[in-house]
Specification:
The chain has 290 residues and is of the alpha/beta class. The protein has a single domain, classed as Rossmann fold, CATH 3.40.50.11550. 44% of the residues lie in helices and 18% in strands. It contains eleven helices and ten strands. An eight-stranded mixed sheet has the order 4-3-10-9-5-8-6-7, sandwiched between helices. Strands 1-2 form a two-stranded antiparallel sheet. Helix 3 runs parallel beside helix 6, helix 7 packs across helix 9 and helix 9 packs across helix 11. It is globular. The N terminus is likely disordered.
Length: 290
């Protein structure tokens, strides 16, 4: 079961660096990551089909109580943009909370301790942060280090956006999906199951699909609950499928609190076709080599 659990933890990551420098293993943060403002990138308001600048996007989402940013986990530019967004949003209004898919419930206490430590000793060594977090190597640290540390150094609390490995094992075995009219529509279940099969090149049995579907939807449901409970404005950073309005967290929010809907900023790659059903805004950057 441990092997299967790790497959879910790492395999589901890719469904959908460096804006800091390291000197003596200490973090030195740059004010505005250049890649976030790359003139070859393109931001589109999917409601109007009009192009936007990074700063007009910031202004558009700054008044929203819940913002979801969807990433492709292996694209370094996406992590640079995320760091830029969370830092710049905080300059426009106080940030209430930051919710990260990369942090699980059993890491929450360690996160709180690190946040306190960073306020008193802003140069805690990177290796020590990884040790304290018991960092899951399924999330490559070189890709996530700058965004994670920037989040931990922010004034807003960082909250877990993911269930624990024990919970993953439990949901994988039980195949229990969360209740909800929107999230349990046959079209949603069919599409998510299809994506899981495609991700595994068709080399997966029906029982495994049902187990992985349960885990994915329980994660989405948990993220939705965290968004509702979190101090506002809340920013959730998660994988693209978790963020997608037609498949992920927004559907579970619709089930839990129909009157509280998020705005979704999807980070994509050139050549993708992201629609209004999936997001409110799309930020296209160059694709990475698989």
């Amino acid at each position: 079961m441990l092997k299967i659990t790790k497959l879910i933890f790492t395999g589901m990551l890719f469904l959908a660096a460096g804006c800091q420098q390291k000197q003596g293993d200490r973090i030195i943060s740059s004010a505005v990551p250049e890649a976030a403002l790359d003139k070859t990138s393109q931001i589109i308001d999917l409601h109007t089909k009009e192009q936007m600048t990074p700063h007009t996007l910031l202004k558009a989402i700054s008044h929203q109580s819940m913002v979801i940013v969807g990433e492709k986990h292996d694209n370094p530019s996406h992590h640079v943009i995320e760091q830029w967004l969370l830092e710049q949003l905080a300059t426009l209004r106080p940030q209430g909370s930051i919710i990260l898919e990369m942090i699980t419930t059993d890491q929450q206490e360690a996160v709180k301790d690190i946040e306190v430590g960073l306020k008193g000793h802003p140069y805690i060594r990177e290796r020590r942060i990884q040790e304290l977090l018991n960092w899951n190597t399924g999330w490559p640290w070189p890709l996530y280090r700058a965004m994670i540390i920037s989040s931990l150094q922010a004034d807003a609390p960082v909250l877990a956006g993911n269930i624990s490995e024990d919970e993953v094992t439990e949901f994988y075995a039980s195949r229990v999906r969360p209740a909800g009219n929107s999230s349990q529509q046959p079209a949603v279940i069919e599409k998510m199951s299809q994506l899981i099969v495609e991700m595994h090149d068709g080399q997966i049995c029906c029982q495994q699909v049902a187990s992985m579907l349960a885990v994915q939807q329980q994660r989405d449901h948990f993220m939705a609950q965290q968004l509702l409970k979190a101090p506002k404005p809340a920013l959730l950073i998660a994988g693209a499928f978790h963020a997608a309005g037609n498949l992920g967290v927004p559907l579970h929010l619709r089930d839990l609190a129909p009157d509280q809907q998020p705005v979704v900023v999807m980070l994509g790659e050139k050549g993708m076709n992201i629609t209004l059903a999936e997001a409110d805004y799309i930020w296209y950057v160059d694709a990475v080599t698989p």
